[in-house]
């Protein structure tokens, strides 16, 4: 579930941190930059594990900050395909079940990979596993065990959209531009890192189903 990733980067140490030890100043700067962020093809960064090598710091003219080239290792959340994990049901929809592990919410179990015989109950807004004539409800916040099928990395770098004014021939106000930008941002919220999972096996699904 957690792995170590070796990364090389140039870190910026501001003058206020010159009083710290080199290791503490570098670690704090790296954690501020990487912690709780997704690095493409690496995973969700948790924190700096250790510092491997550092260069001599150099200061740019008129800047005052020290720049140091660092090789370091990060603790990263990146479960391997086939790994079995445990989380809690965050929400249900006709497309499937969304699971949270507390620190990571972008886990999706499609309806097609739920236990055979499962169906969505629109009245209760939950999935139900019909097993031997008994209805097993997948209620919100229930602990659930699942297996990772695949991981999906998406470049979520924001892009600026300039609204066109040619249709109306008028100049857009600041409010118009702000509303257009907000709409564009909210309509394309794709997670930079997500997991697609399954519970279509014995022993997977709600822990209460299996007495564990």
UniProtKB/TrEMBL annotation:
Name a GO CC annotation attached to this entry. RNA polymerase III complex
Coiled-coil intervals, chain numbering: none
Which segments constitute the RNA polymerase III subunit Rpc25 domain?
83-210
**Statement: the UniProt record of this protein carries the keyword Transcription:** yes
**Classification via Pfam families:** RNA_pol_Rbc25, SHS2_Rpb7-N
Q: Which GO terms describe its molecular function?
A: DNA binding; DNA-directed RNA polymerase activity
Gene3D superfamilies reported in the protein's UniProt record: Nucleic acid-binding proteins, RNA polymerase Rpb7-like, N-terminal domain
Q: Which GO terms describe its biological process?
A: transcription initiation at RNA polymerase III promoter
Q: Where are the transmembrane segments?
A: none
Keyword annotations from UniProtKB, A to Z? DNA-directed RNA polymerase, Nucleus, Transcription
The RNA polymerase Rpb7-like N-terminal domain extends over 8-64
The protein's location, in the record's own words, is:
Nucleus
Q: Tell me if Transcription is a UniProt keyword of this record.
A: yes
According to the UniProt entry, where is the signal peptide? none
The record ties this protein, via CDD domains, to:
RNAP_III_Rpc25_N
Primary residence: nucleus
Family under the similarity heading: Belongs to the eukaryotic RPB7/RPC8 RNA polymerase subunit family.
Query: By what name is this protein known?
Result: DNA-directed RNA polymerase III subunit RPC8
């Amino acid at each position: 579930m957690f792995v170590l990733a070796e990364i090389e980067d140039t870190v910026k140490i501001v003058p206020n941190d010159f009083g710290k030890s080199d290791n503490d100043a570098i670690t704090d700067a790296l954690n501020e930059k990487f912690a709780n962020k997704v690095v493409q093809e690496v995973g969700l960064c948790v924190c700096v594990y250790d510092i491997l090598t550092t260069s001599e710091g150099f200061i740019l003219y008129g800047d005052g900050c020290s720049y140091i080239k660092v090789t370091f290792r990060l603790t990263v959340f990146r479960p391997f395909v086939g790994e079995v994990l445990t989380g809690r049901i965050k929400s249900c929809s006709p497309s499937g079940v969304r699971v949270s592990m507390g620190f990571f919410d972008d886990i999706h179990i499609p309806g097609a990979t739920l236990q055979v015989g499962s169906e969505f109950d629109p009245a209760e807004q939950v999935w139900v596993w019909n097993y031997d004539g008994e209805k097993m409800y997948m209620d919100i916040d229930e602990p659930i065990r699942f297996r990772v099928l695949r991981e999906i990395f998406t470049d979520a770098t924001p892009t600026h959209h300039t609204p066109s004014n040619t249709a109306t021939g008028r100049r857009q106000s600041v409010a118009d531009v702000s509303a257009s930008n907000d709409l564009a941002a909210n309509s394309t919220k794709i997670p930079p890192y997500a997991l697609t999972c399954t519970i279509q096996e014995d022993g997977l699904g709600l822990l209460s189903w299996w007495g564990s």
